[in-house]
Design goal:
Length: 492
């Protein structure tokens, strides 16, 4: 009798499971409990997801093991996030990230939603705009960081085995550090900065392990002490240290805060706003300040640094391309003249190279999850309220429909046949910073840093590979190149 009851319960659960499966857009066949995990190479998840797109179209469902609706081309992404943007502003945070990282609900810009998200994003963008994001002020901040990089590279005795990643990391980090905290690190005294980046690199490596995947996909596993200690606790300890560094920097920043002075950094500006009797953001607290700082620090440093590492990987792999871009800089700007953001429209081969590098690398290995807040049809597929959404930029940016030979790096891909103008129609099919109301808040800062750091380095130095270039990508929440070194020759 007991066996019959157990069998009946299992059968009913299986029936319920598949009834739920068929309420989503079609996709690869899932099994109860494990979904599609039986058929996935977790180290090449982005490749596997693209293969499913070829089978099921631009809107499909994968179970890993939680069901996710994938938006697999730029048209589906824009139909959802621009044409129906208000229906896709939700974030699924409590189930996955908050439980794993112990993040307080609705703190920061990335994982919050509703009015909490609107208020924190609006306040952040207002402050960043006041600090010059998108204007000449931010250009000067970036150039100051580049000048420090020049001084550091020129001072190196060994120019034969240079790890560009460390220098680029600090250069980018100092820009966001100056904006958020009001201080920067010198290249010869940056131990604390590299302690932080080391922790973050450990986190990225952790996302490549099966333990991390289990912890994120099954967040309730943290409630089981033995499994928590084995699977989640080591990574949570790394994350705790990262949070503590931010907390310490914010507390130091608070000690120099004077409400009577014009705020010199993001932290002071938020504090002044929160203290104002006329503030629109009186519901925000210190936890929200720390969340905003963490989000902008991570987004403003790691993604830009990884993208720059791909830039120089491609340039080391093709010396002729490197010389071509350098020649364009010399022809348009000159060898000794200063490069400005205003030169972007004239340096079309440099711009096309930047677009193609971002397209080819598409560094988000696992996109930021959104949540559908209202039943919506996308590409004639019903996406039900509450569905979790993966806008897979990697797939969209490797779509054969718009990008011929998508896995081949073509530096001039985004240039028209006339050889003199950029192909704006193709650029419109390219998704480097997301789309819609949740588009990357630091887009203009990222574009400025990528352009200025790349062009200034090419104008001043020649980069030479140390042997064969390994183009293999390492999978994680961020797709990264393998570590490499190079030689540099000063030109100017």
């Amino acid at each position: 009798m007991l066996l019959i009851i157990i069998t009946t319960i299992i059968a009913l659960l299986v029936i319920y499971f598949y009834k739920n499966v068929y309420s989503f857009p079609p996709g690869p066949f899932p099994l109860p409990l494990i979904g599609n995990l039986y058929s996935i190479d977790i180290k090449k998840l982005h490749i596997w997801v693209k293969e499913q797109k070829e089978k099921y179209g631009s809107v499909f469902t994968i179970h890993i093991p939680i069901p996710f609706v994938v938006l697999g081309d730029v048209d589906a992404i824009k139909e959802a996030y621009i044409d129906n943007g208000d229906n896709f502003l939700g974030r699924e945070t409590r189930q996955i990230f908050e439980k794993f990282f112990n993040i307080k609900e609705n703190t920061g810009v990335v994982l919050s939603e509703g009015d909490w998200w609107k208020n924190q994003r609006r306040l952040s963008l207002t402050i960043l705009h006041n600090f010059g994001m998108g204007r000449s002020i931010i250009e000067e901040r970036i150039k100051m960081s580049i000048d420090d990089l020049f001084e550091h590279l020129d001072s190196l005795k060994d120019k034969e085995h240079i790890d560009l990643s460390k220098s680029l990391h600090l250069t980018v980090g100092n820009v966001i550090n100056g904006i958020l905290y009001g201080f920067i690190y010198k290249h010869d005294n940056a131990e604390k900065f590299y302690e932080f980046t080391s922790l973050f690199e450990q986190m990225i490596k952790g996302t490549r392990t099966w333990k991390m995947r289990i912890a994120i996909l099954f967040p309730d596993i943290n409630k089981i002490p033995i499994l928590n200690k084995f699977i989640s606790k080591p990574l949570m300890e790394i994350q705790r240290k990262i949070f503590e560094i931010h907390h310490t920097n914010i507390e130091k920043c608070k000690k120099t805060y004077n409400p009577n002075n014009e705020p010199p950094n993001f932290v002071h500006a938020v504090l002044k706003e929160l203290e104002s009797n006329e503030s629109k953001y009186s519901n925000l607290e210190n936890d929200h300040l720390e969340g905003m700082v963490r989000d902008f620090y991570t987004a403003g440093m790691e993604t830009i640094t990884v993208t720059l590492k791909f830039f120089f990987l491609y340039l080391l792999n093709d010396i002729n391309l490197q010389e071509k871009l350098r020649s364009e800089i010399y022809d348009v700007v000159g060898k000794d003249n200063e490069i400005h953001l205003s030169h972007r429209n004239e340096l079309i081969h440099v711009e096309s190279f930047i677009y193609e590098s971002q397209r080819k690398s598409s560094i988000l290995g696992f996109p930021l999850i959104r949540k559908c807040t209202k039943d919506t049809y996308i590409k004639n597929n019903l996406i039900k309220k509450g569905s979790l959404i993966l806008p897979y930029d990697y797939i969209a940016n490797h779509d054969e429909k718009y990008f011929k030979d998508p896995y081949v790096f073509k530096a001039d891909r985004f240039i028209n046949e006339d050889g003199e103008t950029l192909n704006k129609n193709l650029i419109d099919k390219f998704v480097p910073f997301g789309a819609g109301k949740r588009i990357c808040a630091g887009k203009s800062l990222a574009e400025a840093e990528l352009f200025l750091i790349l062009t200034h380095l090419l104008q001043r130095y020649r980069f030479i590979p140390n042997g064969p270039i390994d183009m293999e990508i390492q999978f994680g929440n961020l797709l990264t190149p393998k570590p490499y070194t190079c030689k540099i020759e000063k030109i100017l």
